Structure to design on (451 residues):
């Protein structure tokens, strides 16, 4: 889309254009720009829409390489996954990035030259368990094996919440190289305005994990209207429709902002939500939050939200009625949500990823020895020579060490979860292979315990 200007580091990052990973990838890329990081963004899933093209054009450090290959969770994806793998390896050979950042699993098992980081935003096995209460059928075995191979091949695995990392361990075994880096979001273009008497939700209507059906089932019993933004049609499937709600359809980020600004209440009784970017957006806009009572959302939002059992429509209806009738209570929850949302900024997310990138590049440097002189250019980017003996690290680009709690290993997190199953867990994990003589890389959020 645009030629990259010469910079010191290039990351090849994958992203799908179907869900929240696109928003996450652009937020992270733009936050990394001030640190001199360039992003080659390889997209899959479907072609970019007009809004996504505009968003990408505003990111001066991002060059998009577009495809429409199926994602690994889509029906009959494996021929596309294989072709996408060849395409990605060809991109690496052409661009010679310093690091690979994969927002999917299967392609981590490819023969990459550069160190590779995998982000586990979600997975079908944990989604199925949360939605259906049982393991997925045998037709998902190939997917399970592909995810397992990717996790084992990754040099580092990142999850957006401790709950998601534990779900990966539950379904695929020990993730020894796993850390938690929460997502970040900013809404710089939102205009503060008085809240209106309406309830908003956002999410794919066809996705049972969002549990929009439960919200729709109680909407008629509420005195405020319920508006839902999101896709109604499953890829290559039929449209999902609900009565008693106002379906807004698929809105891009700029179209959704006014709705967040208007809504007094944001309701998402989700059965499965490893992080929940839409919840963060609603909190930044000052909505009172009513969320599904699941570990990941409690971990992230603590006492800044009201939690309702996901399979009890009457509990959801009663909670919404109480909030409708209590403006002071809504105002308190709005302020708590906004204050908590400030912890999840793109800048703090980028700082944590820089620490992770540094770790991977240091490890690669120790394994491979000093990098050879690299003067191979590629279209759109001129590589500056890297002299023999110069370490390939991002130390000079990394911000000062953020304050935070001691790091926790996945095993420690499992123990804490067993002891306090509904406790808001710390969101930092021990970086794999931490060097004794180096400063510990700490995550950016303060430790918060349950009331």
């Amino acid at each position: 889309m645009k030629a990259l200007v010469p910079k010191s580091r290039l990351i090849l990052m994958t992203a799908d254009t179907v869900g929240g990973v696109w928003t996450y990838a652009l937020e992270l890329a733009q936050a990394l720009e001030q640190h001199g990081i360039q992003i080659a963004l390889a997209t899959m899933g479907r072609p970019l829409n007009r809004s996504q093209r505009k968003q990408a054009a505003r990111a001066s450090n991002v060059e998009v390489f577009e495809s429409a290959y199926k994602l690994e969770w889509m029906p009959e994806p494996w021929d596309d996954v294989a072709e996408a793998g060849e395409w990605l390896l060809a991109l690496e050979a052409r661009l010679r990035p310093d690091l690979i950042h994969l927002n999917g699993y299967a392609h981590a098992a490819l023969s990459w030259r550069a160190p590779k980081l995998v982000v586990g935003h979600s997975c079908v096995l944990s989604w199925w368990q949360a939605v259906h209460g049982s393991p997925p059928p045998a037709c998902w075995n190939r997917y399970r094996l592909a995810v397992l191979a990717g996790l084992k091949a990754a040099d580092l695995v990142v999850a957006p919440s401790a709950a998601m990392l534990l779900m990966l361990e539950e379904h695929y075994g020990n993730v020894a190289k796993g850390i938690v880096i929460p997502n970040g979001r900013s809404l710089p273009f939102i205009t503060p305005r008085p809240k209106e008497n309406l309830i908003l939700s956002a999410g794919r209507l066809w996705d049972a994990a969002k549990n929009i059906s439960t919200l729709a089932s109680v909407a008629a019993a509420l005195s405020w209207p319920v508006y839902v933004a999101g896709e109604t049609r499953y890829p290559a499937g039929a449209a999902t429709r609900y009565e008693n709600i106002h379906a807004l359809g698929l809105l891009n980020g700029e179209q959704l902002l006014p709705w967040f600004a208007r809504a007094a209440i944001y309701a998402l009784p989700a059965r499965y939500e490893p992080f929940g970017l839409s919840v963060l957006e609603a909190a930044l806009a000052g909505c009172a939050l009513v969320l599904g009572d699941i570990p990941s959302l409690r971990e992230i939002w603590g006492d800044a939200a009201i939690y309702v059992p996901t399979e009890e429509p009457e509990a959801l209806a009663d909670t919404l009625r109480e909030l409708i009738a209590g403006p002071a209570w809504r105002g308190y929850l709005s302020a708590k949500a906004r204050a908590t949302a400030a912890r999840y900024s793109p800048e703090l997310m980028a700082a944590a990823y820089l620490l992770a990138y540094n770790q991977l590049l240091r490890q690669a440097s120790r394994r491979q020895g000093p990098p050879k002189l690299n003067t191979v250019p590629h279209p759109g980017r001129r590589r500056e020579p890297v002299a023999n003996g110069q370490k390939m690290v991002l130390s000079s680009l990394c911000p000062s060490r953020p304050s935070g709690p001691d790091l926790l290993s996945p095993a420690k997190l499992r123990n804490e979860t067993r002891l306090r199953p509904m406790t808001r867990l710390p969101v930092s994990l021990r970086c794999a292979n931490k060097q004794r003589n180096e400063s510990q890389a700490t995550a950016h959020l303060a430790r918060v315990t349950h009331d």
Q: What stands out?
A: The CA atoms of residues 128 and 134 lie 7 Å apart. Confidence is low (pLDDT under 50) at residues 1-7, 371-451.
